[in-house]
What does this fold into?
Amino acid sequence: MSVRVALFGTKFMGKAHSQAYRSVNMFFPEAPRVEMKVIVGRDPEQTKEAANAYGWEEASTDWRAVMHRKDIDLVDICTPGDWHDPMVLEAAKAKKHIVCEKPLGNTLEEAMRMAAAVSEAGVRHFLMHNYRRVPAVTLAKKLIDEGRLGRIFHFRARYLQDWAMSPELQMLWRFDKNLAGSGALGDLGSHIIDLAHYLCDDITEVSSAMATYIKERPAVPGSEEKKPVTVDDAVVMCVRFANGALGTLEATRFALGRKNHNAFEINGSKGSLSFDLENLNNLDFLSADDNDDVEGFRRIIACSKGKHPYADHWWADGHILGYEHSFTHSVNDFLTALASGGEVHPDFEDGLKNQKVLHAVEKASRSGRWEQVV
Amino acid sequence: MSVRVALFGTKFMGKAHSQAYRSVNMFFPEAPRVEMKVIVGRDPEQTKEAANAYGWEEASTDWRAVMHRKDIDLVDICTPGDWHDPMVLEAAKAKKHIVCEKPLGNTLEEAMRMAAAVSEAGVRHFLMHNYRRVPAVTLAKKLIDEGRLGRIFHFRARYLQDWAMSPELQMLWRFDKNLAGSGALGDLGSHIIDLAHYLCDDITEVSSAMATYIKERPAVPGSEEKKPVTVDDAVVMCVRFANGALGTLEATRFALGRKNHNAFEINGSKGSLSFDLENLNNLDFLSADDNDDVEGFRRIIACSKGKHPYADHWWADGHILGYEHSFTHSVNDFLTALASGGEVHPDFEDGLKNQKVLHAVEKASRSGRWEQVV
Amino acid sequence: MSVRVALFGTKFMGKAHSQAYRSVNMFFPEAPRVEMKVIVGRDPEQTKEAANAYGWEEASTDWRAVMHRKDIDLVDICTPGDWHDPMVLEAAKAKKHIVCEKPLGNTLEEAMRMAAAVSEAGVRHFLMHNYRRVPAVTLAKKLIDEGRLGRIFHFRARYLQDWAMSPELQMLWRFDKNLAGSGALGDLGSHIIDLAHYLCDDITEVSSAMATYIKERPAVPGSEEKKPVTVDDAVVMCVRFANGALGTLEATRFALGRKNHNAFEINGSKGSLSFDLENLNNLDFLSADDNDDVEGFRRIIACSKGKHPYADHWWADGHILGYEHSFTHSVNDFLTALASGGEVHPDFEDGLKNQKVLHAVEKASRSGRWEQVV
Amino acid sequence: MSVRVALFGTKFMGKAHSQAYRSVNMFFPEAPRVEMKVIVGRDPEQTKEAANAYGWEEASTDWRAVMHRKDIDLVDICTPGDWHDPMVLEAAKAKKHIVCEKPLGNTLEEAMRMAAAVSEAGVRHFLMHNYRRVPAVTLAKKLIDEGRLGRIFHFRARYLQDWAMSPELQMLWRFDKNLAGSGALGDLGSHIIDLAHYLCDDITEVSSAMATYIKERPAVPGSEEKKPVTVDDAVVMCVRFANGALGTLEATRFALGRKNHNAFEINGSKGSLSFDLENLNNLDFLSADDNDDVEGFRRIIACSKGKHPYADHWWADGHILGYEHSFTHSVNDFLTALASGGEVHPDFEDGLKNQKVLHAVEKASRSGRWEQVV
It folds into this structure.
């Protein structure tokens, strides 16, 4: 089987997804064969360069036309959030399978519309919460599913970055609610909400507070003209899970020195887990089955062949993987599911569930109350 | 100057405070000379043994009589929480200086009454939040006060233990609201609230959720008879600080593998700090003043002479201190303030402020709303 | 400029180098354009599969013929050690530029012959000690070259693995002195010797001991027939450097739980550095320039744009890299040097110097004396 | 039973041993009762102050007279190394039990003479290698004795400090071979040699190199007059053990940023261990019995009641201990052995064995050969 791909977006995510499509057949030879047909961007010159550099056969600036090309099976959307809705709707209309960057929409309404559209169209859909497929995280899921944590009491997660702390940093699309939907919440918070859903259970209720520490920013670098920041720089949440666990979640762009610190800890009746994306090959696990005298958090280097998810496809034991490999794993699993017809998550339904939490968090931050996720 | 001490309580805290009084003059020869006059307990035999082992001149079971002895200057209360109020009131009446274990009271009303009593009596008072005087924490305070963190955006803290996880563990005073006031909240949460006040700012508003995972416990070990647990096993909080910072705080006795994990991280505009009581000699500090190419959290071993708080009084550089030393430092600082008439914190006013937060947290957990700390 | 490459070897290293050639133009668009012409292996079927999977235009089993093809500029040798010598000599004869896996030869004589051959042929040569181009290691070099460590007193390194510990593991080429030259010494020790040369100075004198813990192994998996292991499982060394520093080096395949633990620490008069390949994005650095009260090893996450080597070519700050990226960096730097005519290291002269140390280590282990590196 | 103690030396070790004698009966009530009779120093005023501060009944400057006092059972020698020999010989003559600081002597001859003297006198003797009784180290020993490491292949240890790096630091007794015997070797190296003997096996053969980086130092602080440093600043060793294991050992006072970094790693066929004195409550242990998918070094917090050595005598689980507690444990174990007549190590025989290694290391550093330990 061969899958012909069109990718929309040439920047950070466009590059990361491209690398996944380039690499998947080399490391996962059983996956369907990828044909990298066309990359779509706004600027003709830049898009052509991206096509050359990343290995796409063609470059295009006409996104709508590409959506309807007959030689395309799969559409991958890596644009800012405000483009997800129109593109997904068009792709569904064209009966293409869809990969979309997270969060699914900029609003709950958009997310509901997109989830409905793909369902009605009968196409396959996948939301790129790539961190589920960091091997250490996939291993965490395995341990939990096998009951090795027992009943879960606590899920605590934080996603900390610091790139937005300078007041001199200019207005970007990520600071504009119309383009990005929200700030740290949607960008970072949606990732840890996805991990909470994946590893713990559905979030049923939330309380929160949000802050915007820098209220306006230069319109362009160095300019005197200021534009208002309309999203959150930081958000804190307490959450309740369907299984009775309590959670604390936090996402911020104002944690000096934390570059990509997406960290969680889970405490269960039989085991505990701890993870940090800045050392993404490690998973710390404590088991109540340990002999009493040697109980402790063990640091697993989650890349040993025959032991750890995806490891058989890469290098020798302990030869660690990087950030980008989570995209390769995601693309492999989605392509494989396309071929087999099997299930694959997170899909747009998972994305919609996530968006309901994002929605409830914003609501709770305004109401000053715990809000149900509905 | 010499200070004659009576100590109330023979168990964990009684032993820890005793070790502080035994040691303080050896390591802090400038401190007033301690006379360990009398230890008071309920069981005559056990109290006598404690007196012998810990080095008290006498043992007594008559707490009220001891309070009024003329040869006592300082009263130290290490009993369960329900005894703080009557003992403090009696000690104030007797015009004794008072050291008291935390939290100050089992209720806000008690705490207010105690704070008023010591104030009216004109005696000195000190609340044993000993973690302020772990050298790494004192160093953190110094860095903050010197402006090396800049404006603080985030304070996140967790105090995780796991000793209460077995359903076979019997009913203890710590599980009884009448005796303990609250569970993880007062026992552990009050410590991190104190650190939040010490290191960040006043907490002005809280949201929270509490859980009791094991609802009843054997009346005595192994018994079929069960008694209801009337306190929380775990509590999660979002908080707002007077300085605009956002906080997440969590205290639990159900975090498998975490023994005494009292950890905080603070993110400011110029620096970040991270600490964990399980490695209490370390403080991790990141400074925006670092050269760009070597920015990173540096692990300070906070026991070098001439560099770190209290270090001149102990061993050679890097020869680490333990849990108990925080009590010795606390006792030294309080005794020194007694002699000099200088200020010393945390006192009962700090304890009252802490209790107001505990009160608001319980209220918020019932109301489902953010609650003001008043 | 375009460089036409032939690669020899289809296994672990063949795959790793292939990934580098596939990726270099995407992430380093300024590098000469790579044409992946042909991959050469012993098994026709397997080689064809490798060509398809890795992206080589052709597969071949005739290594000598490929060496002389006119449409090849660069030859990359990823075979077991016993093939380096004949292949390098042939490639030099054919006036091809050469990349070769480490160590350069199986014996000092081979290494001398190869170094002489490339020098006489006037071709460019590069030895794949890829760890020099792990960004954290390149950063270490930069700090040292800028004088931020001052005079170096100590270099200690260990390369620990555990894959050879099972007596049931069969005889492999890596256990056969005729094929591999040596065991842990050449495989792992040569890497840390290269880092010692790169980061500290020339090794002038060595003392050592070697051990073979498992003396014979099954001829094939599960077989009763045994074959003698003729290489070392482990080697320990004390070394002296030209700059007066003292070193301890150790390489072993018998360190249970250590998968790819290539770790070093360097202590100088102004700074210290510590690194571990199992967390290859981190470099720990302590500077005597730190303020006294916050001196400590800081953990640098060595992948921030504008701050760290190679980082501008990859993802966002703190989005970590993996093992394979060191090959991409190596290939980029060699290709760039080809284009510019500039210097690039490690070359075969560096490889020869390394081999002299390997030779002295084996000699010292037999003589029981310190031996000069000559 | 009661033991009447005289202690010789008032400085760092005198204070540390004093604290042990002060504390042992409080935390180990089963131990014989200590009577702190007299402390002996050179300066009358200073010795009196020490007596007061540390809790000794008397102060004396007449060491020889005190040795022969009838009311003394146990003599504890905390002086510089050159005083060990005359004091031990006198104490043995007086039939006192003896605790002595390490290393036993300044020369092999002295150590042999002292070991013979105590043996002939029939008194009990103990060498204060206190690190054996850091609970995590005692736990390591237990795991090894129970076979949980299997056959040991590797022992690597380093003891790194940095206090001697400033050329302005004046001449101290520790820099004078006549007073100290050797430098980093005897001061730090003897500790890791003791741990090697304790945890691995007898060292049978050594190779080494020593360096003195600063050859002369100010006679007194700030003075122009210089005195020659006659000891080593650093020493590196390769060693062979009786059980076939290979070792690397290193001791230095020139490892910038390392304050008290006494660290070892042991690799066996069934398990590996790692320890660092700067976090002395932790022991890292990897077991081959772990499930394959969760194998990893687990970080044990070695202070949980019912699980770890000495923990029952201290605070609650995870309430960590410090440097000084190792002395309290040592004193308890020696006093207990005095009372019971049972064995206790390390004694002077262990000290003599250690001294033979020190001797062989110095010899090897001069000869440039591997030297037998005889």
About this structure: The interface with chain B takes residues 139, 142-143, 284-287, 290, 292-301, 304, 306-308 of chain C (CB under 8 Å). The mean pLDDT of chain C is 98.
